[in-house]
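quick q for whoever's on today - can somebody do inverse folding on this one?? i tried earlier but teh output was garbage lol. tokens:
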């Protein structure tokens, strides 16, 4: 199971609660559940405009499929299809009844997960690897660093952007800063905390750079948002690295990992190699409840580049596009890190 999935399950109580208090009783019938669900998204979801989505068309397609005789299984299928249309990994629905969680845009994640293996990296490509200190034991699977074998290149792998100590990158750069380059591997990264992303980026910053704006949906129109809040990257910490950096990504490099990339890609020494990222930037709103007890959450914010463009639903497109297959990994070859090694050998 992906760590992003696990974090959401923890937020939902790991299916522990079968009955939820919903306030005053609302009619618990399929039509009313559908109407509440569709209208709640219509009033509050933050990315219709950024992702060029036609939510009215979803009502036209799926409302006729729901009537008083619609079963729970049929309604669950309808809701899954509606969320699949959004293709937004920060939008989820959970049924304690079925003990099922559906994450929008996650249908191909299981394939991407097979295209990366950290054990292959440790066994074949790096040496003297160490676990990164200062990482929360509750949420971190594998955070490590080491040296690329037979090359003057450091390697750092993060499978999330969470840490008890936001300054942990200082320790890493003390160990790796003498190398001529660093590979920062963000593949299969489930995201985490934007503050940690900013702190990591601050160790590679070349200046104070304006990198993105954030607005929150605040009205009934799909274009109703708060004023833009600007975010900057700035030099942080006691250790800094201004030599070449290659960032490795795949289709489930998501959320705060993509925020980290917004910062890093504003620096001249950073190159992205791998596959396009997930394209899921927004923060998630509070849990919502339906009369039948199902719970859901969705994106409430819009992140824009300084020029006004959105990468939601698009993702960060790499400077060098390359992707492993499952067969590559099974054969003991990670073509993505090998491409990064070739690229840095000539720098």
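ok took a stab at it. sequence:
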């Amino acid at each position: 199971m992906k760590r992003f999935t696990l974090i959401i399950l923890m937020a939902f109580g790991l299916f522990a609660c079968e009955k939820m208090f919903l306030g005053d009783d609302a009619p618990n019938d399929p039509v009313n559940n559908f109407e509440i669900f569709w209208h709640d998204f219509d009033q509050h979801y933050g990315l219709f405009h950024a992702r060029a989505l036609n939510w009215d068309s979803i009502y036209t397609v799926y409302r006729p499929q729901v009537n008083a005789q619609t079963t729970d299984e049929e309604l669950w299928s309808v809701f899954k299809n509606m969320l699949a249309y959004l293709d937004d990994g920060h939008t989820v629905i959970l049924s304690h009844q079925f003990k099922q969680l559906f994450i929008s845009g996650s249908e191909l994640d299981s394939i991407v997960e097979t295209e990366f293996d950290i054990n292959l990296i440790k066994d074949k490509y790096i040496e003297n690897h160490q676990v990164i200190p200062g990482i929360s034991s509750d949420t971190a699977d594998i955070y490590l660093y080491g040296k690329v074998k037979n090359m003057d290149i450091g390697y750092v792998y993060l499978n999330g952007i969470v840490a008890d100590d936001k300054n942990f990158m200082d320790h890493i750069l003390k160990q790796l800063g003498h190398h001529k380059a660093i590979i920062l591997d963000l593949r299969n990264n489930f995201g985490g905390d934007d503050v940690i992303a900013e702190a990591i980026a601050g160790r590679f910053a070349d200046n104070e750079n304006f990198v993105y704006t954030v607005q929150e949906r605040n009205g009934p129109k799909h274009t109703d948002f708060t004023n833009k809040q600007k975010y900057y990257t700035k030099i942080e910490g006691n250790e800094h690295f201004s030599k070449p950096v290659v960032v490795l990504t795949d289709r489930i490099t998501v959320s705060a990992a993509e925020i980290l990339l917004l910062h890093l890609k504003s620096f001249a020494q950073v190159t992205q190699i791998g596959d396009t990222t997930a394209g899921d930037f927004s923060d998630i709103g509070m849990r919502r409840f339906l009369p039948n007890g199902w719970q859901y959450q969705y994106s409430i914010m819009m992140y824009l580049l300084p020029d006004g463009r959105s990468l939601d639903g698009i993702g960060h497109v790499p400077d060098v596009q390359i992707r492993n297959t499952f067969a590559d990994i099974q054969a003991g070859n990670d073509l993505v890190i090998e491409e990064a090694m070739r690229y840095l050998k000539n720098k």
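fwiw The longest strand covers residues 209-216. also The chain has a mean pLDDT of 91. so keep that in mind when u check it
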